[in-house]
User: Fold this.
Amino acid sequence: MTLRFGSVSSDLDLDARGRRAGQFGLTHSSDRHAFSTIRAPLGVIRGDDGPTALVCAGNHGDEYEGQIIVRRLFERLAPEDVSGRLILAPALNMPSVEAATRLSPLDGGNLNRSFPGLPFGGPTCEIAGFVATQLMPLADLAVDLHSGGTGTEYLDAAYLCLTGISARDAQTRGLALAMGLPFAMVVPPGDTPGDFDSAAHDAGCAMLSCESGGEGKVSRRALEAGWQGVLRVLADQGMLADGVAERMGATPAQQTRFLDLGAGAAHLTSDHHALAEPLVRIGQTVETGQPVTRLRDLHRLDAGVLDLIAPCDGVVAIRRSTGIVAPGDHLAVITPELDARSLDALLNQACAA
Ligand SMILES: [Zn+2]
Assistant:
């Protein structure tokens, strides 16, 4: 059976038992692609009866750890290791993966703002529509792996994207704990319209995304954190046979600290064209009033320095890593830590809104 949305299609058999590698293809008419199809890898591993997990990366093309993790799953897992079905898409937005860019060079589209997609709405919207209408409805669980991209560095963190639906949010909280990364960011409902997470929730999937590393590099630390996190989630869902996650290198989950990436978070933003000096490292706990970034005028030696200070206590969750900054550029995000009671309150508040 052919899966198709607009000009994106795949003939890969996702139903039969076994492990198969295929592709989905995007037909796009441009000078370069007038007589070709842009192919992206798609894999399936189907073992005994069980749930279906859709594990994706390459949503943004300049984020690499997730792309490696999804390919590793295909390389290392056999059908007998899996209870259920893994659908693996390591390069969702292949035009941006090929170009190592966040956005598609074909149409400037940001795949993670293009869901649920539009038939014949341009390449990025069509890939989003293919994922949302052809793959997500098959899945009980969706996992989308991100990194910081070229210009930023992120904590190794699961993302608890709240929906305001109590049972769904409790489920995502459980998944974030199962992932066992050092941190989980709590994101308020509707924070990122058009993203993968919202589309997966709309399709009825349990959903977890995560961030690890960034700066346009492959970090071994972030890669291993993400790899272990994905194995733990699949094991938690009963999708890996006993001992498989350990055989693949999974260690016990770490204690996860929850951070408020919503109203409680503070963005430190430049008002100047400047050279930025980081004064803190990613994941560092800072106190109110602590200098976080030092700015220097680009053109004058005698203008003095300007320190941007933390307006609240919290953890440095996101840090810009480019040296030259402009007015409006966010340089860091300080996220207050949520204890169990304040996390409960935030989830209840989301449901009441
Ligand atoms: Zn991303």
The pocket of zinc ion is lined by residues 59-60, 63, 112, 146, 149 (CB under 6 Å). The first helix runs from residue 65 to 76. The longest strand covers residues 18-27. The chain has a mean pLDDT of 95.
